[in-house]
Every structure is written in C-alpha cells, then in structure tokens.
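For the sake of transparency, this paper describes our internal protein records without simplification. Because each token names a local backbone shape, the row as a whole describes the fold. One such record is reproduced below, unchanged from the form in which we store it:
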Amino acid sequence: MSSHIRRIAVCTGGGDAPGLNAVIRAVVIAAANRGWECYGIRDGFNGILFPERYPDGGVSRLTREKVRGIGHLGGTILGTTNKGNPLHFPMKMPDGTTKDMDLSGEILEYFARKEIDALVSIGGDGSLTIANALHQKGLRVVGVPKTIDNDLDKTFTTFGFDTAVAFATECLDRLHSTAESHQRVMVVEVMGRYAGWIALHAGISGSAHAILIPEIPFDIDKVAAKIRARDAEGRMYSLVLVAEGAEPIHGHREVLAPAEIGHAERLGGVGEQVARVLGDRTGKDVRVVVLGHLLRGGSPTSFDRLAAMRFGTAAVRALEEGQSGIMVALGFPNVNYVALEEVAGRMKAVPPDSDTLQTGRDLGIAFGD
C-alpha cells in the first residue's frame, strides 16, 4: 500500500476518557508537520452519517490553531457517542419498527468523495471493532486504544486509566477519614464494565479493606466476616470497593439498562446491593458512594497525557509507513503495532495469577472468595 497521503480524518468513539484531546492534538500537529490536512469527524461517525445535525456539516478541518491549548483538557472537542454502531445502526422504519442497518457504505463513499486517504480511529473495543470492519472493506485505518477500563487486549495500558485510578484513589483517601469518624462501612462503586482493573488498582492504592471485581464472583458473607474481624480488632470502619460488573457467587450482575440495537447494556446498582446486604449481616451503618462518570472527567495525568501524545504521533507515523488495519499499543519501551483483528472483540480481564492481585491478598485485602 502506497504511503502517499494528503488528507486524513480522526474520530473519537465510545465513552469519553481523559487524554482524548491530547491524542487529537498530537495527530493534527504530526500530520501538519508532514504537510497533510487533518479533518475531525463529529460524534463518532455521526458527523458523516447525519451532517444536517451540525452547523459545520459534521466534518471540519482541524488546524494547529484549533487544537492549540487542548492537551490538558478532559473530554473531546470532536464529541463522542457509544450509541449507533454504523455497522448495526438502529433505523426507524415507516411502520414504526426498528431495523438493524449497515451504514458503513456511506462512510466509505464519503472518504472516497472527499479524497480523504486514511482514518485515525480513537476508541475502545467497540470502536476498534468498527475500525477493523472498515479496514476489511478497504478503508485505510489506524486505531488508537482508549478506555478508562484498561480492558483492551494487546496493550500494556490505555490512556484514561491512570487518571481514573488516581481520582478513585483520592476519593478513597477522603473516605477513610469520614468512615473512621463515624465507624461506618463505606461501599464505593467504580466503573470498569466486565473488568476489575480500576477497582483493583485504586483499591490497593487507596487501602480498601475489600475489593470486589468481575473476575472473582464474591461471597458476601466473607466480606461481612472481614468487616466483623476488623471491628473485633478495634478497627470500627471499613471501605469496600466494588466494580460495577462484580457479581455474587450465587447471583447475577446488576444491570441498569439492557442491551439494545447499537448500544451495550448499562451496568450499575451493585454498590447498593452490596451495601444493603452488608448492613443486614453486620448491623453497621453502611453508606454508598458511586463515583460513576466522575472517573471519566477532568484533566489527564501526566502519564495519560504522554501516552496519548505517543499514541497520536505513532498513528501518524504508522500511516506514513504504509500501515493499515493496526492499532498502536503501549509496550516496553516503545509503542508497537498490533493487528486490529487481534484486538477486535477481545477483552483483557485481570488474570487470576496477577501480581497486583496477589499484592492485595498479601496485604490482607478481602476479595470475597
């Protein structure tokens, strides 16, 4: 594949994460330094599919001036969406029913008509699965891994994860003092979907007394026993950190909204469930804190900013080298290229023999097993 490029486009899809703007800025500047034009697609691919929704037509030229000073900002100047996968887009039919449509042809036609040579797709598993499908249909694509959940395979970490863990850890630090003052149990629910990376890293860093993650179905009685043991030692408070996808050993995962066409199920509610049962089992005053979208907002840490800029510039270098159908991945010591087909549809869970997990066990943290 010829590496000759004049124009590229960039889009951000899925949930927002600190560091997205840093990637966009890095892509735009690295492209400009090569004499390439760069265009930003609004809200995933909605800017192409529904241009009438946007004053600028849904796709606009990104220049150095437009990305100046955005590297430290949370969110994404392009907007994002985790609804409406263009490969399985829910379209309302005249009879009122909803039909699953493949709109990828419209995206490919737009790139051809506007003579845009390649796409940098920034996103998580869903976005990179879409990127891989577009690559297989002939579009030149390089993916950039993004998720606060750190559940993307083939990369050591994703930008956004470090920021989420840092904020969750700060919250735990604050909750220790108020929980101890009132001799309460604090149940803290964090994001992570089906992977427990945020809960595990923040829980250990923030000295939680129990950590419940999706990879280890929990026995609530063992968590209650941990709390009672702390009380017996004169430690009259406890912090329990729960990943939103954690589930009891004889129960089910808590779901706020079921999956629908073009949109994954929405998790949540496990913190309330755990708190209710722990209150019954221990007789203690139990309060719940759901960090939720607070983990997604705010400025990225220096680690995430640097990772984002490394990914953005690496994506441009990959295109210059003639690469397509790959994701830039963080390895040691360099950024690597990984085939999108090795990433799409795969999730990186916490391994049962994880050194970090063993660290928690050696520190006496309960995992409910």
